[in-house]
């Protein structure tokens, strides 16, 4: 395939732990949002379009912020993830407060993307190499039954200010994903990195790859996801907090032998904002990258 890939940015999260809309908060030296660095890296890596998934409440604000900045540099589209998006009337519940998670967000973009595409979080910084690896895979290797993810060593994706949740991966010797388990309450101590499960503490090796929601997909994934979506809604129609995550879809594709997922080695640098206390670290890290010449004085 030679068509330029698309970047899908998940920016509809509620930002509950952080305490605000971190997707449109400024962290760079010139108040750049974290997602602006992802767009900058995507453009210089060869992506041709950016699609934003946003909540209806921040749609106009997002357009006002981002279209003037890089609307002339890459094709842009905005898609809303709402409680009723892709949800038949029979499954809609007025008491539900939040949409259904990342795989639901992916489905919301089905009509906007018809080419190989990457998926990222708006509030995570992934590094230029991740986008170069994704662009190469999505233009040369991707197939309807072959997707990818960028793997990050767990030692590099923790917060100093609280526990985190990560998709801990199991990989084959050939570098393909065998499956992943969402681990919560992961933290680092002087004795190592541990996931707390009730009274039990389970060690996770520092180099173990984890998913930071940095994926590369063939557009066939939309139909593959939709086949799981409606059974999910039926099974969870009484659960107002149920969420439909991309790892659930990926695990199912692997287990049903419907697709392979290659783990790319582009995950060399990552930082993000999970807690308000992470803000200073992110601002300093971005400032240092500018000073080293990894990014120009002004992105746009």
TrEMBL record:
It comes from the Bacteria. It comes from Cyclobacterium plantarum. This is NTP transferase domain-containing protein. One of its GO terms (molecular function) is transferase activity. InterPro entries: Nucleotide-diphossugar_trans (IPR029044). Keywords: Transferase.
């Amino acid at each position: 395939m030679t068509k330029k890939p698309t970047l899908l940015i998940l920016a509809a999260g509620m930002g509950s732990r952080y305490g605000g809309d971190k997707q449109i908060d400024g962290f760079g030296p010139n108040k750049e949002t974290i997602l602006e660095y992802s767009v900058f890296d995507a453009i210089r890596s060869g992506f041709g379009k950016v699609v934003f998934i946003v909540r209806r409440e921040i749609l106009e604000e997002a357009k006002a912020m981002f279209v003037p900045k890089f609307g002339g540099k890459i094709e842009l589209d905005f898609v809303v993830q709402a409680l009723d998006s892709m949800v038949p009337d029979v499954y809609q519940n007025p008491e539900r407060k939040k949409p259904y998670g990342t795989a639901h967000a992916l489905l919301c973009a089905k009509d906007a993307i018809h080419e190989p595409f990457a998926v990222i979080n708006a509030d995570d910084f992934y590094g230029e190499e991740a986008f170069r690896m994704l662009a190469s895979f999505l233009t040369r290797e991707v197939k309807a039954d072959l997707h990818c993810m960028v793997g990050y060593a767990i030692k590099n994706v923790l917060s100093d200010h609280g526990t985190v949740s990560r998709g801990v991966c199991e990989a084959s010797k050939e570098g393909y994903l065998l499956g992943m388990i969402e681990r919560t309450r992961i933290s680092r101590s002087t004795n190592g990195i541990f996931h707390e499960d009730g009274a039990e503490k389970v060690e996770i090796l520092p180099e173990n790859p984890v998913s930071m929601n940095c994926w590369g997909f063939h557009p066939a994934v939309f139909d593959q996801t939709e086949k799981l979506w409606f059974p999910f809604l039926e099974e969870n129609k009484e659960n107002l907090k149920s969420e439909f995550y991309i790892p659930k879809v990926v695990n199912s594709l692997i287990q049903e032998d419907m697709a392979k997922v290659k783990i790319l080695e582009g995950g060399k640098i990552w930082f993000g904002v999970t807690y308000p206390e992470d803000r200073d670290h992110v601002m300093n890290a971005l400032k240092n990258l500018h000073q080293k010449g990894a990014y120009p004085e002004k992105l746009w």
